[in-house]
Design brief:
Length: 191
């Protein structure tokens, strides 16, 4: 299956809360943040990037973090360098293709959590949380497994505004542990 990004249906200036279409990736059985962020998380795991920052751009996603410049996750001799990567829409489509092809294969544990594919799993559950809220213009950063997220959302009283959410490392681990029971259920469907 080939996955390609469809892009925005409305110009950025014309985005009006929940009425504006979200960024979707054509060709996936589910077109949502859960799949997109899972693929970005798998990329971060593969590239050995930690303490990540993610910003949604008009034409893709900006990913920044500290990366090991040599060695492996378990090799303490490697040095950390800051990396900034702009993942274009086409690159995100490729990452989605790769992520789908890799599902079910084993990977090495993340050095700080001891958990395989930590960022793939953490970003997947954050994506599921985002899908239930239907936000625009997401931004978040992570440090030590905790995440602070800002998203543009429709306000319950009308209009749109930025909302903040914080997820501790322990909350992320609970969300990851609960995720197998949620498979096959729509986000926000209550389990």
């Amino acid at each position: 299956m080939t996955v390609r990004y469809a892009g925005r249906q409305a110009p950025r200036a014309g985005v009006q809360g929940a009425d504006a279409p979200m960024r979707i990736y054509d060709g996936t059985p589910r077109q949502d943040w859960e799949d997109v962020l899972r693929a970005v998380g798998a990329y971060a795991d593969r590239e050995r990037i930690k303490e990540i920052l993610l910003l949604e751009l008009e034409g893709g996603i900006l990913l920044q973090g500290l990366a090991f410049s040599s060695g492996s996750w378990s090799d303490s001799a490697g040095t950390l360098t800051k990396r900034t990567i702009e993942l274009t829409d086409d690159q995100l489509g490729t990452l989605l293709d790769e992520a789908i092809a890799r599902r079910g294969t084993g990977v090495a544990p993340h050095p700080e959590t001891g958990m395989p594919s930590f960022y793939e799993q953490a970003l997947r559950v954050l994506g599921r949380w985002l899908d239930a809220r239907r936000p625009r213009d997401i931004f978040f950063f992570e440090q030590g497994g905790s995440f602070v997220l800002r998203a543009l959302e429709a306000s319950p009283v009308g209009g749109i505004s930025h909302q903040l959410a914080e997820f501790t490392h322990d909350e992320i681990l609970v969300m990851i542990d609960a995720s197998p029971q949620l498979r096959g259920h729509a986000p926000g469907a209550g389990g």
